[in-house]
Amino acid sequence: MNLAILKEVRVRRRETDLDKVAFKFAEALEKYGIRYAVVAGYVAVALGRPRTTEDIDFIVKVEDPKIILSSAEDAGFKLLTKIENLERDFQNTSIRFYLPPYYLPNVEVKRAKNRHHFYAIENRIRFYIGKSSIYIGPLEHQIAYKLYLGTNKDLEDAYFIWRLLRDKLSMDEIKKWAEEVGAEGRLWILKR
Predict the structure, then answer these.
(1) What is the pTM of this model?
(2) 82 pLDDT band (50/70/90 cuts)?
(3) How many Cα atoms are found within 13 Å in the side-chain-facing hemisphere of 4?
(4) Are strands 55-60 and 106-111 parallel, antiparallel or unpaired?
(5) In the chain, what are the domains?
(6) What is the distance between the alpha carbons of residues 177 and 170, in angstroms, rounded to a whole number?
């Protein structure tokens, strides 16, 4: 059961180059009917956290990487992953794309393969900057995962998202996911 109460987020600011790459890639996936959720550092940055990130992490619900490749190429993206490694990398780790002429930021695409990935896609929320939008994973889930990762950057991301939207987020949902991933010992960070 999803206890999250937030279903969409809207921010008022100008789109950055990072946002433009994310929105363009998301639009390409949506054109092909590919379900996805954006997770990780981009979400905190997009919400206004003052830090940089070199990639945008997409989790996709598709088995054939050639569909991702076709959708990306149709939108003008180029493959960073070696074409001969496309299938293996997509099944085991991730594949990457860039939007010429720049290699950064790039897009990292992971195939949904565990409960957390599928949960993020099935419970995704719409994120808007002006009229542009993208789907992101549920924020409570992302906060718990950031607590689990435990690096300074990840802990600060979790704290930033919590402080920004705590009146719209479910602490019970964060606790549930933190317990599941073994990060309940870091929940104190949200109470600073």
Answers:
(1) 0.94
(2) very high
(3) 22
(4) parallel
(5) 15-137 (3.30.460.40), 139-192 (no CATH)
(6) 11
Pair of tokens at residue 2: 């999803």
Contact 57, 135 (CB under 8 A): no
- Calculate the CA 65 to chain-centre distance: 18
- Rounded Cα distance, 80 and 131, in Å: 29
Confidence of residue 6 (pLDDT cuts 50, 70, 90): confident
pLDDT at 86: 97
Give the Cα-Cα-Cα angle 133, 138, 142 (nearest 5 degrees).
115
| Average pLDDT of the residues in 121-145 | 96
* C-alpha closest to that of 63 among 97, 111, 132: 111
Whether 54 contacts 19, CB under 8 Å: no
> Please, is 129 exposed, middle or buried when counting C-beta atoms within 10 Å of its C-beta (0-12, 13-18, 19+)?
buried
Nearest to 134 by CA among 29, 4, 14: 29
For the chain, percent helix, then strand, then coil, each to nearest 5? 50, 20, 30
Q: What is the pLDDT of residue 7?
A: 85
Token representation of residue 134? 């993208």
Cis peptide bond prior to 138, omega within 30° of 0: no
DSSP state of 41: H
